[in-house]
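FORM 7B: Structural annotation worksheet

SECTION A. Query
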Amino acid sequence: MAQRYVRVQSQTGQLHYGLLRPDRSVQVLDAPPWLQGQPTDMELSADSYAMLAPCAPSKVVAIGKNYAARAIEMGTTTPAEPLLFIKPSTAVIAAGAPIYYPTQATQIDYEGELAVVIGTRCAHVPPDEAHAKIWGYTIANDITARDLQQRDDQWTRAKGFDTFCPLGPWIVRELSPGARLQTFLNQRAEPVQSASVEDMTYSPDYLVAYISEIMTLLPGDVILTGTPAGSGPMKVGDQVRVEIEGIGGLSNTVALRPQER
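SECTION B. Predicted structure
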């Protein structure tokens, strides 16, 4: 099993990066792993921490229409260049945390995606050096208020609500080029999304180089690489799970904010 890098909060409220062991205990690192964090003698038992999103990015850069079948599904063609948008860092939540259905929206959709975690500062990175800037891979769900996306001339509101970027549950260093991405709704056996990550139009390496010509990527920043065909709506109470071979599964449930019940 590949090493799984996590970010957790102990019962005393302290935040730690660490290595998740098979028994769910965590060997604590002395710094984020992409900043050369090393194992310490501290260990957290499985019942002594809460799992957080595996990184705390300064920004999340997302890609639209990066699978040809998804572009066709949206009634468009594949963009001649990567289509970029930003999700705020405040949208990031952990596996198991609720996705809150905003009162402004009438339809929110799941979008299962492969997420890339940046390891070193990236600015104007040549394409042949881009892969070395990727520290690891995790899973994301680019939640979208579809009715607001269609209403607005840009996507900030539709993509930017708090809780609209589930991320995790951990990071792995390597990923098979042909890893399969699947999204499941309410634990049904048949996935609502299923594709190989190599079906992307623009690869993770290409995206790192392309984005770094526009904005500086910092260690711990995240790139969402796009969703395949099959995105669809969710309602309050639905559970959505995104799985990627070689990483694991990211599950979250749609809820109303407590004051809205």
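SECTION C. Observations
Residues 210 and 247 are 25 Å apart (CA to CA). The radius of gyration is 18 Å.

SECTION D. Sign-off
Analyst initials: ____
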